[in-house]
Design brief:
The complex is a heterodimer.
Chain A: H1 2-26, H2 34-54, H3 61-73, H4 91-114, H5 120-136, H6 141-144, H7 159-171, H8 180-198, H9 204-215, H10 218-225, H11 230-250, H12 253-267, H13 273-290, H14 299-318, H15 327-330, H16 333-338, H17 343-354, H18 362-375, H19 381-403, H20 408-419, H21 421-443
Chain B: H1 2-30, H2 33-48, H3 50-73, E1 79-81, E2 89-91, H4 92-101, E3 107-111, H5 115-125, E4 129-130, E5 139-143, E6 158-161, E7 170-175
Parallel strand pairs in B: 3-4, 3-5
Antiparallel strand pairs in B: 1-2, 5-7, 6-7
Helix pairs in contact in B: 1-2
The chains are: A mainly alpha, B alpha/beta.
Chain lengths: 447, 178
């Protein structure tokens, strides 16, 4: 077990080094933004490893190390930018809320080390694919294009299986227990990155409690320790959504590059990542036009997102793999009309699961604060942006339940409690942003 | 038990006090009543259930550690508990015997209507490859099923028992005679 843990931590150190080079190239300082570096490393290495698999590589340890070294070397292309103006940290809040969060994460880490792989989709689909990559030496078509394995949703993007396969390579064994630590590290990286993106934009007294709220939500822990893709896609998309918001507010190019890298990771993690990110781009275009910003810089992040998914869609199409979500039919009005009876039960279930007590009232608080900001402070920008992001996630989930082939009862009962993770995690990240709008309204700054 | 109840009852006023302290800090930081109220509400929402969350996570960690510990010393090899409630545990030994029997990269056809055994066999037997036609298979594996109507001639049958830790069913395998 110790050897597995050491191997997994070494793999993640390599991902961090890769991300450190990339974020330095973007213009972030590594010392002040290690969370962004880690999440970027995971995202970029994850996307590139999917491409390497399609190119016929097996993700051997030395291949991963060369990839990470090349990405780390990108940091040498740019001189480190001067330090940003220091953000005053409230030590009372940092010690108390950080301590509570740290204590909880320590217990969750212990659970992650010993957690058996006892979630059906994890051992039958996600981790199974990672095992197949390791045991068959890559993306072997005898499994990944074999109709006998069709129930394993072979069309799903490969970022998580590729990540797990790289972990297994460095572990030197297929350790089904310790692999859960990868998901724990993603949670920690997500929380640190969210803190780094928000700390100079929102009051500390809103930021720390919000991070505690989302980090300790029991429903998130359940999702995380199940080793499914729902928590990772929520983390990637949540960070992409607040990075896009930060870009709109500050106009920083480095935030836009980070947005692109992390949005690409969301697209390459789960099928719903694609409509989430497509909607986010549309929102970004609308708000950029409203703020009279050039749309040209958005081209590069969009290109990276296409690189993250289009080759994979071509690969599965070339191998005749049936899509689990019939996208063509899903845009056909008569097909949608025939299945209209699926809409209301889906809406009801998504709302019920999103408002579940194990999500600690995150959605109700966000909705109330958004309404207060709109109605009382009459500031439309942030509430509409947040409403837009949540609307994108909600409509994407609804559309998926509407068009997918399996029976609705089965789908809702087996997946709704985890697919709403993106909805609630994104909402939680925008809590301090909406709260800060209350403040800006008071001080009379421009919207 | 009484102490537990007492702790959770006492925790709620403690969380309210903590929420009030956050309110004071936020008021001092932002000079805004609305922001201070929001900060207190968020803090309270997180803090009220914090002990329960911590306790549940610690219990889950303890249960997982116990299973790991039992598996290390288990006489008949480790068991794999494949469902969230730990109720469906299978003997890893059954699949280890199949792995021993079927050479790597051989193709097998699996006949069963039991999803858990179906998918666990796919996962456990890698790099042996499943096929959807028994005629393309080197081996047929079956669980609570009759392979007689598959239309292929089978060699000697290997009976491997028991699949579940608390059941008496076997999983069977036989080579396909070409």
């Amino acid at each position: 077990m110790i050897r597995s843990l050491a191997g997994l931590l070494f793999a993640n150190a390599a991902f961090f080094a890769a991300g450190a080079g990339v974020v330095r190239l973007f213009g972030w300082r590594l010392r002040s933004h290690p969370g962004l570096a880690y999440m970027t490393g995971i995202g970029v290495v994850g996307v590139l490893s999917t491409l390497l698999l399609m190119a016929g590589l097996a993700l051997h340890g030395w291949q991963v190390l060369i990839l990470c070294a090349l990405l780390a070397a990108l940091g040498l292309l740019r001189r480190e930018r001067p330090a940003d103006a220091p953000v005053k940290t409230d030590r009372r809040l940092a010690f108390s809320f950080g301590g509570l969060l740290g204590g909880y994460l320590a217990v969750l880490a212990v659970q992650s080390v010993f957690q058996p792989l006892n979630s059906w989709d994890a051992w039958a689909k996600w981790t199974m694919k990672a095992r197949a990559i390791v045991l068959l030496g890559g993306l072997d078509t005898s499994v990944f294009a074999n109709h006998a394995y069709q129930p394993l949703v072979l069309d799903y993007p490969m970022l998580i299986p590729a990540l797990e396969a790289m972990d297994f390579r460095f572990m030197g064994r297929l350790d089904n227990l310790v692999i859960h630590v990868q998901f724990w590290l993603l949670l920690v990286g997500f929380l640190v990155a969210a803190y780094e993106l928000l700390r100079d934009r929102v009051p500390q007294s809103l930021l720390w409690p919000s991070l505690l709220l989302v980090g300790t939500a029991p429903a998130l822990a359940d999702n995380l320790t199940s080793a499914y893709g729902d928590a990772p896609v929520a983390f990637f998309f949540g960070l992409a959504a607040i990075a896009a918001w930060r870009y709109l507010v500050t106009g920083e190019r480095r935030t836009l590059w980070f947005f692109g890298a992390i949005a690409g990771a969301a697209v390459a993690t789960k099928p719903e990542g694609s409509p989430f990110v497509l909607g986010l781009f549309l929102l970004l275009i609308v708000f950029s036009l409203l703020r009279k910003r050039s749309l040209v810089p958005l081209v590069w992040p969009a290109l990276w997102c296409l690189i993250a998914i289009v080759p994979w869609r071509i690969w599965i199409s070339h191998h005749g793999i049936r899509a689990s979500t019939p996208i063509g039919k899903g845009l056909n009005p008569s097909y949608l009309a025939d299945r209209f009876s699926r809409v209301w039960p889906s809406i009801r279930t998504i709302v019920e699961r999103g408002f579940d007590g194990d999500w600690l009232a995150i959605l109700p608080i966000v909705l109330v604060v958004a309404l207060v900001v709109l109605a009382w402070r009459r500031r439309w920008s942030a509430p509409l942006y947040v409403g837009g992001v949540l609307g994108i996630v909600f409509v994407s989930l609804l559309w998926a339940y509407w068009v997918q082939r399996p029976s609705l009862n089965y789908l809702l009962s087996t997946s709704a409690n985890r697919t709403v993770t993106s909805l609630v995690v994104v909402a939680a990240l925008f809590l301090p942003i909406l709260g800060a709008e209350l403040l800006r309204g008071r001080s009379g700054k421009a919207d | 038990m009484v102490l537990k109840v007492l702790f959770f009852v006492l925790w709620i006023p403690a969380a309210v006090v903590a929420g009030y302290i956050v309110f004071r800090i936020a008021r001092g930081e932002t000079r805004s009543l609305a922001v201070a109220l929001l900060a207190a509400a968020i803090a309270l929402a997180g803090l009220v259930v914090y002990p329960r969350t911590l306790k549940d996570t610690a219990s889950a960690a303890h249960r997982a550690e116990r299973l790991w510990s039992v598996n290390r010393h288990r006489k008949n090899g480790p068991k794999d508990c494949l469902t969230f409630n730990f109720n469906a545990c299978v003997n890893d030994r059954a699949w280890a015997e199949l792995r021993h029997l079927i050479p790597k990269h051989d193709r097998f056809y699996l006949q069963t209507n039991f999803g858990l055994v179906h998918f666990w066999t796919f996962t456990s037997l890698l790099p042996r490859i499943a096929v959807d036609d028994p005629k393309k298979a080197d081996w047929v594996i079956w669980y609570r099923a009759d392979p007689g109507k598959l239309g292929v001639r089978l060699g000697p049958r290997h009976v491997i028992r028991h699949v579940y830790t608390n059941g008496s069913y076997s999983i069977d395998a036989a080579p396909v005679l070409k």
